[in-house]
């Protein structure tokens, strides 16, 4: 059983200087579990629907017959996804929340030498969890509509004489769309795990008095904003992360940054990200929290 720090421990803690602490990154086990669940959904629900459509194409069926099958498949798969997604998401988000909490406890214990688990179990994270549920369920349940809609457009183009991508046959186009959709369903696991981790990280770290962090990114060619990379300029869908590397940021205000360790704050340029690390699609960045003992003590004495 965890106990709150004693007055003696708090007094000793208040004399320490701010320091960086170990970052909390997305848990790969929880990501893997969601990825496996997403893969099973696709194989058990969308693959059979795809095989029925492919059979009709191979058989030379009419566009009406294929369209009827697409409509039937859309209704069935969308219903099945909607029924299964909430249960998958509930298990996944509980696992991510548990791992984020445990990681912050380990980080704080290592940095401060005291156990803060009693404090970290108290913050209400229901809003962050509810937002994650809504976003993730919507993302997952959109997969059948998006995928079968793409097949419907390919069927319509084919019967209208419009050439398909890269000169593929209709059957080849359906196979390519299936491969892309299956791969996307697995990528969703990484994206959603990263976003939920970012949201819970911000909430729980602020709950113990951590107000600032240093933005860190992997500094490879895929980082948005890298002048030599594949995406040298940030945009509305994914802001510039390259220029945020090493900058001090506030959990409470994603619109500002500091290049002098939090002494002064500036508005982030329009091309920069306006979210915390991990908040944008497939973001691989992370936050190195700045542990400021006096501020943490002020927070702890309220419990």
Number of domains: 2
The rounded distance between the terminal residues' Cα atoms is: 17 Å
Oligomer: single chain
- What is the count of helical runs? 7
In the predicted model, the low-confidence regions spanning at least 5 consecutive residues are: none
Shape: elongated
Describe the protein's architecture and organization.
It is a single chain. The chain is α+β, with helices and mostly antiparallel strands. The chain has 2 domains: 1-12 and 23-208, no CATH class; 211-303, no CATH class. 57% of the residues lie in helices and 8% in strands. The protein contains 7 helices and 6 strands; from the N terminus they run αβαααααβββββα. Strands 1-6-2-3-4-5 form a 6-stranded antiparallel beta sheet. Strand 3 (248-250) and strand 4 form a beta hairpin. Helix 2 (28-58) packs antiparallel against helix 3. The protein is elongated, with a radius of gyration of 24 Å. The two termini are 17 Å apart. 36% of the residues are buried.
């Amino acid at each position: 059983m965890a106990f709150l720090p004693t007055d003696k421990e708090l007094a000793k803690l208040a004399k320490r200087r701010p320091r960086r602490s170990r970052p909390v990154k997305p848990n790969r086990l929880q990501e893997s579990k969601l990825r496996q669940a997403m893969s099973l959904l696709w194989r058990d629900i969308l693959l059979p629907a795809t095989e029925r459509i492919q059979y009709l194409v191979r058989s030379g069926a009419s566009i009406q017959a294929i369209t009827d099958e697409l409509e039937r498949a859309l209704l069935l798969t969308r219903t099945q996804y909607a029924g299964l997604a909430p249960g998958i998401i509930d298990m996944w988000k509980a696992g991510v929340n548990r791992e984020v909490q445990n990681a912050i406890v380990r980080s704080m214990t290592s940095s401060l030498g005291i156990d803060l688990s009693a404090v970290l179990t108290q913050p209400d994270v229901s809003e962050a969890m509810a937002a994650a549920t809504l976003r993730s369920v919507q993302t997952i349940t959109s997969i059948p509509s998006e995928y079968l809609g793409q097949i419907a457009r390919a069927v319509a183009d084919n019967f209208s004489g419009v050439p398909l991508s890269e000169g593929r046959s209709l059957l080849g186009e359906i196979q390519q769309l299936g491969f892309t959709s299956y791969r996307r369903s697995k990528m969703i696991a990484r994206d959603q795990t990263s976003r939920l981790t970012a949201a819970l990280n911000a909430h729980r770290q602020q709950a113990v008095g951590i107000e600032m962090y240093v933005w860190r990114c992997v500094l490879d060619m895929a980082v948005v904003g890298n002048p030599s990379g594949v995406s040298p300029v940030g945009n509305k869908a994914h802001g510039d992360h390259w220029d945020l590397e090493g900058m001090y940021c506030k959990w409470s205000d994603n619109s500002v940054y500091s290049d002098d360790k939090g002494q002064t704050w500036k508005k982030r340029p329009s091309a920069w990200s306006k979210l915390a690390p991990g908040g944008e699609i497939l973001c691989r960045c992370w936050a190195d929290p700045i542990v400021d003992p006096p501020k943490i003590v002020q927070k702890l004495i309220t419990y």
